[in-house]
Write a structure and sequence with these properties.
7-stranded parallel beta sheet, 13% strand, single chain, alpha/beta, 267 residues, 9 helices, 44% helix
Length: 267
């Protein structure tokens, strides 16, 4: 009889084929590009047609345009992935939007928009991809946020969506663990992405906001998308074969810091 250790050792460390949502920019693009560098076949899925140009010259990249908030688009993306590559053993969900407002002043339109992309989109993709991923004993990684674990002011819909994403991932982890399927969440702090650039641009003094964001993190800076990509790809790989139902913070120590602690920088 083959032991579990021997069976794991015989598997490829990296997935062979993954579907990456939000692949046209930011963290999703960094994950897709790094996976392609590792020889993984990647279905690059995004609502924006920028995904066409972003991966036009990358062998192993399948470019897919669609809306994660539409279940039929997600089903079509998975079907095209299987038609093109013949298999699917990893899902990296990164599509997301940020909107602002409290529980009192967030409109129905804004609430539904954020939940439909950030949470329902994750559900749609997971539901479509799970049959293939279960067959391959694969892995799902959802891009959460430190706001999957905490919150700040004026982001009711966003925080609710990211908390919900953690619950969705853990339910998948429990439902399909017996089949060897793993599901985890990555929770970044601030990351230099087009979405953050847009959010900062709304401020009266964007340079002051950047200074504040850098200072919030004990490492003294925000993250680059590639730093988050490395963690997501680790969780998708067999190297993380016993990591399941987890949320992995990649926040430069942001949530480990006691609020109001004076910073002391050693020379």
């Amino acid at each position: 009889m083959i032991s579990m250790t021997e069976r794991i050792a015989g598997m490829n460390e990296s997935p062979t084929t993954i579907l990456v949502s939000g692949a046209a920019s930011g963290i999703g693009r960094a994950i897709a590009e790094r996976a392609l560098d590792q020889g993984v076949q990647v279905a690059c899925f995004d609502q924006s047609d920028e995904v066409e140009d972003a991966f036009a010259d990358r062998p192993g990249a399948l470019r897919l345009i669609g809306d994660v908030a539409r279940g039929e688009d997600c089903e079509a993306a998975v079907a095209r992935t299987l038609d093109s590559f013949g298999t699917l053993d990893g899902l990296s969900h990164n599509a997301g939007i940020q909107r602002y407002g409290s529980a009192q002043n967030t409109s129905d339109e804004i609430w539904n928009e954020v939940i439909s992309v950030n949470l329902t989109g994750a559900f749609n993709l997971a539901r479509a991809a799970l049959p293939a991923i279960r067959e391959n004993r694969g892995s799902l990684v959802f891009m959460g946020s430190v706001q999957s674990l905490a919150s700040q002011q004026n982001v009711a819909a966003y925080t609710a969506s990211k908390h919900g994403l953690l619950g969705l991932s853990r339910s998948i982890a429990m439902d399909f663990a017996i089949e060897g399927v793993r599901s985890n969440v990555v929770a970044p702090g601030a990351v230099k992405t087009p979405m953050l650039d847009w959010a900062v641009s709304l401020a009266d003094d964007p340079s002051e906001v950047w200074s504040t964001l850098n200072a919030m993190h004990p490492l003294g800076r925000v993250a680059g998308p590639e730093e988050i990509a490395e963690v997501a790809l680790f969780l998708l790989s067999r190297k993380a074969s016993f990591v399941n139902g987890e949320v992995v913070r990649v926040d430069g120590g942001l949530l480990s810091q006691i609020a109001g602690t004076p910073r002391k920088v050693e020379a």
